[in-house]
Amino acid sequence: MERVGIDDAAWKKVLSLPVIVAALGYFVDIYDLVLFSIVRVPSLKSLGLQGQDLINQGVFLLNMQMIGMLIGGIVWGVLGDRKGRLKIMFGSIFLYSLANLANGMVSTLPAYAVLRFVAGVGLAGELGAGITLVSEVLHKSVRGYGTMVVASVGVSGAILANTIAANFDWRNAFFIGGVLGLLLLILRISVVESGMFRDMEQKQVAKGNFLALFTDRNRFGRYLDSILIGIPTWFVVGILITFSPEFAKALRVTGPVSAGNAVMYCYLGLVFGDFASGLLSQLLASRKKVILIFLVLTGAGVLWYFKATAVSPAIFYLICTFLGFASGYWAIFVTVAAEQFGTNLRATVATTVPNFVRGMVVPITLSFQWARGQLGLERGAVAVGCLCMLIALISLYRLEETFHKDLDYFEEYL
């Protein structure tokens, strides 16, 4: 087994400009991604909605954002393999920065929905492009550290989002996100393209064919399993955290619970979870073992969430923090997806996989809405959560270990 430690020279590579820029891009990405969950109630109330519409229209707007991410994931992924990783990092952040600025000026629900869709398309390119670039510029013995840095810095964007939303009007919170994104574009000018991609440009090889993921049984299996191992994370964020005020009321929490604080504490846990999972994957020299550990922790966190009846808001937020930590295998999960495929499909996979997982919020929320009507709020959520966990465990079992895998190769397809 090769050495998985890291010396000073390796740290300099891990903390190089491509890694830092990818981390900051994901930071702004997460800021916008969770901002809607934080400002859902005040923004919809300012548009004249109230009561049950705060949930129903909130689900609708969240789904519009996620559908945009599904479409954007395909578009940016294909362009990433055909035009370069850097180009999609520029294009995606430019699009969602403009969408954020416009989102701060909406006055109707339809306009809100359109702009959440556009923002979703823009948001779709950041994480996959960043992970692909980092995976290709770092040696295989330390690339887990690089993705650890990207994820740990990135998810802390949620903490900033909650801080901004707590101190500014929801419209100004969107404006700030747009400005942060445009400022980041200036920093990206100095970043160079992946050497693996530059080498691929000189060769006659098919690249960026999204449909090729579905034309071979083995390739499709790897792709589908790469998606499904991530869905428990978005069950936690999309259901338990986004609708935490409603669950807190049903669980008879002794004081008020805000979605903004729940998101902040969840993502605070994610910061440490992503750091811990990345470090642990290096120490254990395994991605699969770490994902299994964190899936088990997620299951324990969900159980704790629904067993905590009549607790104080402080205890409820502690549970949200633990759920965030347990869900903190996000960067490892995306890294596994990137490592499953050759250079000519890597950006397509690494960009579409996390967005398809995010897009799974649509069937997850629809399933939750149906199960809530059949079983009630709490039992409906538990049923959907158990299904998500079972699917993830089966998919993880079927995937190959990729820690020591050399990424400089091509997928063969017509």
Task: Explain how this protein is built.
The chain is mainly α. Helix content is 77%, strand content 0%. It is built from 20 helices and no strands. It is globular, with a radius of gyration of 20 Å. The relative contact order is 0.15.
- What is the CATH C-level name? Mainly Alpha
| Overall tally of structural domains | 1
The overall pLDDT, averaged over residues, is 87
Q: Fraction of residues in helices?
A: over 70%
Form type: globular
Topology of this protein?
Elements: H1 8-14, H2 17-46, H3 53-83, H4 85-103, H5 109-123, H6 126-137, H7 143-155, H8 157-167, H9 170-187, H10 195-201, H11 217-228, H12 231-241, H13 244-250, H14 259-284, H15 288-307, H16 313-326, H17 330-339, H18 343-359, H19 361-375, H20 377-398
Task: Tell me briefly what this model is.
The protein has helices at 8-14, 17-46, 53-83, 85-103, 109-123, 126-137, 143-155, 157-167, 170-187, 195-201, 217-228, 231-241, 244-250, 259-284, 288-307, 313-326, 330-339, 343-359, 361-375, 377-398. It is an all-alpha fold and 414 residues long.
Protein traits:
414 residues; globular; 20 helices; mainly alpha; Growth Hormone, Chain: A
